[in-house]
DNA sequence: CGATCCCGCCACATT
DNA sequence: AATGTGGCGGGATCG
């Protein structure tokens, strides 16, 4: 329109002759200037004003030359247009004297007004976030550039980033297809997975080499890089994506950088990434040499990307204060988890991704998968199969063409990246932790889950079970929860450290002081336990243990990765665990390992099919982690039970851990009738009215309660009115794990309802009993049905209460199936009640967007301050608008 | 003065 | 060769 107007305007209004109303002119934009005779003269194009003049103008505008020139002048315009003077008034004002114009120009062109972020917002404003699937919107770069009054170059900056997130795709030269955010979550998932994978690698890598944080900030990047190169780790770089992309020129660094940048956020626990770290990571990936200039350039690019991401509402600026001082950073405020979608992810485990075919094989049930238009597995999906069906960059030519490459490759093999990412994550985590510690909020902060918010869980002062998503391994409690963990070697050591509950290994039950009760029953199918047990003080120990335990798994994983073993979907969890650990400790990578990375996925997911998502939701972590409540942590540490149990379990499990074992178990379980066992959680915990019963069918190992860490237990859960169970303490029967009896296939069950519990989070007050023997809870009748297919359903059979839970579960499944959006909500709410995900340890908060709730006050303040700054784009607008009116 | 990041040159890719 | 893309970094502006 603008152009049009201008063209008309200019021609029509021979400036000279028609002196314009200066008064009006204010509103006018510089545009006219070009139009004005004088300027016209300058320009080649100014044709005599003829009837066709307008046309010519338009045409000229189209031409590159014109564009540039006009744009220069127009640059100002866009702002005006968008904000102030988009109105016709400007037209009226048409003629402006040069003088006036100059003034205007001076006023307007604030740098901010020209910012990429603002431009991006304008750009985004032009298209619906969720366009109808049917309609495809094509974007003409020239058109947009002219409309927005910027050079095309700038549009490229925007589009490239959008393309990396699959919001748009290149259809043809100069043409892009707008997809909107429909696939965003999936894309993010994919990125997350990819990031985690890399992460994992890093982890292993680090373990092998050095765990020191040295790497942290990438000083050592080179070495790492070299190492990484050496490392066989993953070469995701499959020919597909990587090679091609790599080959191609500079390989669209912006796109790739954007993806990597996003991955960093998704991988980091804190969700905060500092620019320098990101830059280092990205650099390393690409290069060995870390020259300063390069770094500088990288940072510039990151700003470009960040601006776009900010406009998308995915990140915001914040400042992180470190020892050194305050560093610019960005915090992820977009969706953290993609539960609904994530199902896919899970299903897909990163490992699986590589294999397109297999991808979700496991997930078959998951609709999402089916739907999944986009799962891009790394290469394949990205490249060839794109998420966006419609838009492929290269229309005409071969698929191989470099352009296509762009799309692909999110993940190429960049071990470096992963390493870097890890480092970065670690660094961040540290930072955050530091900050958190200082400003711990409540002992147990609820983790605000983006979607889950619905959840009414109030933060439980006492014992809140922060639920951690399945993906994320329960975090170890930063504070010291002691637990060691998982390591088989340290089995019994339940530490009585703080007040650990006294748990007698042999004895059936453990008692905890706390008021709230939990009953855990049933064998847990999986060992979900992530045993990340943060020892109170010792992260190192844990890590060591964890690593030890993990390492094998990791190795396998790696191999799997390379191989793209379909089976190894599990990665998700592991990575998460790792992440957490990372966060917690400065230590770079302690990985806690995932308990059963491989298997779990299958077992859980497979049976559960859609349910996987549920898991996430359901996972409870009782982490005291929240900085605020170190004390609480200690108390919780009381959960020694967990530790012991874990140990026990771990012992038991260890053998099983390998996925195969689990699978077996699950199968067995399925076949076997089981005694329903439940876990009951009193409302006191923070769930105001809900009590949870979990039936534990799972494999014995599955439920590990690490006192501090909280291994996650996957348990089917039922929500029961608190009244019913009010008086019960938590009881866990460790022995149950192996119950053959459970009729319901563990896998299915677990999948559907499996929850991870981390005991660590429990309020000190809550008494917990753990019984070695299976406890039977009355209310729920076990469901005999053993359909693997219908894992989730079994719950229904259970008591009404159960039903609820089941329903929730069911919901999840649907979610999995298809609509991401819907799914999310459904799951969250439904699940939420079941699993207090919402309640998370402060640390976790990172995942969740709700920044403020969790964050340290101080941090907040800072953040806010930053935000204000950051908010720039919006604010700027406002400011501008306000100011400009003059 | 450091953080941001606009601007546009210019190389490489595609047509 | 023309045009499309986009890496890249100087240097301006912001805070």
UniProtKB/TrEMBL annotation:
Similarity field: Belongs to the E2F/DP family.
Positions of the UniProt region annotated as Disordered: 1-29, 63-93, 382-402, 481-500, 547-614, 628-667, 848-886
Gene name in the database record: E2f7
Biased segments, Basic and acidic residues type: 65-77, 645-667
GO cellular component term of the entry, any: RNA polymerase II transcription regulator complex
Keywords linked to the UniProt accession: Activator, Cell cycle, DNA-binding, Nucleus, Repressor, Transcription, Transcription regulation
UniProt cross-references to Pfam families, sorted A to Z: WHD_E2F_TDP
Name of the protein: Transcription factor E2F7
Annotated organism of origin: Sula dactylatra (Masked booby)
UniProt cross-references to Gene3D superfamilies, sorted A to Z: Winged helix-like DNA-binding domain superfamily/Winged helix DNA-binding domain
E2F/DP family winged-helix DNA-binding domain mapped to chain residues: 111-180, 249-334
Any one GO MF annotation of this record: RNA polymerase II cis-regulatory region sequence-specific DNA binding
Subcellular localization: Nucleus
Domain of life: Eukaryota
């Amino acid at each position: 329109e603008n152009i049009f107007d201008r063209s008309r305007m200019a021609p029509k209004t021979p400036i000279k002759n028609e002196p314009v109303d200066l008064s009006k002119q204010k509103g006018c934009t510089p545009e006219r200037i070009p139009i004005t005779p004088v300027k016209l003269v300058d320009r080649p194009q100014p044709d005599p004003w003829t009837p066709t003049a307008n046309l010519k103008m338009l045409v000229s505008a189209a031409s590159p030359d014109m564009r540039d020139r006009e744009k220069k002048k127009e640059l100002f315009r866009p702002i005006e247009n968008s904000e102030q003077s988009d109105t016709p008034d400007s037209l009226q004002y048409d003629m402006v004297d040069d003088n006036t114009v100059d003034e205007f120009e001076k006023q307007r062109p604030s740098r901010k007004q020209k910012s990429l972020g603002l431009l991006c917002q304008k750009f985004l404003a032009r298209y619906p976030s969720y366009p109808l699937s049917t309609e495809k919107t094509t974007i003409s770069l020239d058109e947009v550039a002219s409309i927005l009054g910027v050079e095309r170059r700038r549009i490229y900056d925007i589009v490239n980033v959008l393309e990396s997130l699959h919001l748009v795709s290149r259809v043809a030269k100069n043409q892009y297809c707008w997809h909107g955010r429909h696939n965003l979550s999936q894309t993010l998932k994919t990125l997350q997975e990819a990031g985690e994978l890399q992460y994992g690698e890093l982890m292993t890598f680090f373990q092998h080499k050095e765990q020191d944080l040295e790497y942290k900030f990438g000083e050592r990047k080179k070495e790492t890089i070299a190492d990484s190169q050496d490392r066989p780790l993953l070469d995701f770089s499959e020919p597909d994506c990587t090679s091609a992309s790599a080959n191609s020129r500079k390989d669209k660094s912006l796109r790739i950088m954007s993806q990597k940048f996003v991955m960093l956020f998704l991988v980091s626990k804190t969700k905060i990434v500092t620019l320098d770290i990101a830059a280092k990571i990205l650099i390393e990936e690409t290069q060995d040499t870390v020259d300063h200039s390069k770094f500088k350039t990288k940072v510039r690019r990151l700003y470009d990307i960040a601006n776009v991401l900010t406009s998308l509402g995915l990140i915001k600026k914040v400042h992180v204060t470190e020892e050194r001082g305050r560093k610019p950073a960005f915090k992820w405020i977009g969706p953290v988890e993609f539960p609904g979608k994530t199902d896919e992810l899970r299903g897909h485990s990163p490992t699986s991704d590589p294999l397109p075919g297999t991808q979700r094989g496991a997930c078959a049930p998951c609709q999402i998968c089916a739907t999944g238009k986009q799962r891009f597995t790394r290469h394949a999906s990205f490249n060839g199969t794109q998420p966006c069906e419609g838009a492929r960059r290269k229309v005409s030519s071969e698929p191989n063409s470099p352009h296509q490459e762009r799309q692909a490759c999110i993940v190429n093999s960049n071990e470096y990246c992963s390493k870097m990412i890890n480092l970065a994550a670690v660094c961040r985590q540290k930072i955050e932790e530091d900050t958190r510690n200082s400003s711990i909020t409540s002992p147990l902060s609820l983790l605000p889950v983006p979607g889950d918010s619905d959840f009414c869980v109030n933060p439980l002062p006492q014992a809140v079970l922060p639920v951690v998503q399945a993906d994320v391994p329960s975090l170890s409690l930063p504070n010291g929860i002691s637990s060691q963990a998982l390591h088989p070697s340290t089995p019994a050591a339940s530490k009585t450290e703080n007040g650990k509950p006294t748990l007698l290994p042999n004895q059936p039950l453990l008692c905890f002081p706390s008021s709230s009760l939990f009953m855990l029953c049933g064998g847990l199918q999986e060992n979900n336990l992530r045993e990340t047990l943060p020892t109170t003080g010792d992260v190192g120990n844990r890590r060591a243990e964890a690593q030890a335990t993990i390492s094998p798994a990791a190795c396998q994983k790696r191999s799997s990765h390379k191989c793209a073993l379909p089976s190894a979907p599990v990665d998700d969890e592991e990575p998460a665990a790792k992440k957490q650990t990372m966060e917690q400790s400065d230590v770079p990578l302690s990985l806690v390992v995932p308990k059963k990375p491989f298997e779990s996925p299958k077992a859980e997911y497979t049976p559960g099919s859609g349910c996987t998502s549920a898991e996430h939701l359901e996972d409870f972590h009782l982490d005291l982690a929240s900085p605020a409540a170190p004390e609480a942590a200690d108390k919780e540490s009381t959960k020694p039970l967990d530790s012991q149990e874990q140990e026990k379990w771990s012992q038991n499990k260890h053998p099983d851990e390998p996925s195969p074992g689990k699978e077996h178990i699950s199968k067995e379980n399925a076949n076997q009738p089981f005694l329903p066992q439940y876990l009951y959680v009193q409302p006191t915990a923070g769930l105001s009215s809900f009590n949870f019963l979990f039936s534990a069918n799972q494999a014995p190992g599955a439920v590990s309660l690490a006192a501090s860490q909280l291994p996650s237990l996957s348990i089917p859960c039922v929500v029961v009115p608190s009244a019913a169970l009010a008086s019960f303490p938590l009881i866990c029967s460790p022995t149950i794990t192996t119950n053959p009896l459970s009729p319901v296939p563990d896998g299915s069950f677990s999948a559907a309802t499996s929850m991870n519990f981390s005991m660590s989070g429990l309020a000190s007050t809550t008494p917990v009993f753990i019984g070695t023997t299976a406890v039977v809870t009355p209310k729920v009748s076990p469901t005999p049905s053993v359909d693997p297919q219908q894992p989730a359903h079994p719950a229904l059979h259970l008591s009404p209460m159960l039903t609820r839970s089941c329903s929730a579960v069911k919901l999840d499944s649907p979610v999995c199936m298809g609509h991401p959006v819907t799914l999310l909500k459904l799951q969250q709410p439904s699940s939420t009640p079941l699993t207090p995900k919402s309640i998370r340890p402060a640390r976790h908060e990172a995942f969740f967007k709700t920044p403020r709730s969790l964050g340290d006050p101080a941090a907040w303040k800072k953040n806010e301050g930053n935000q204000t700054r950051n908010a720039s784009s919006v604010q700027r607008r406002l400011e501008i608008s306000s100011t400009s009116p003059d």
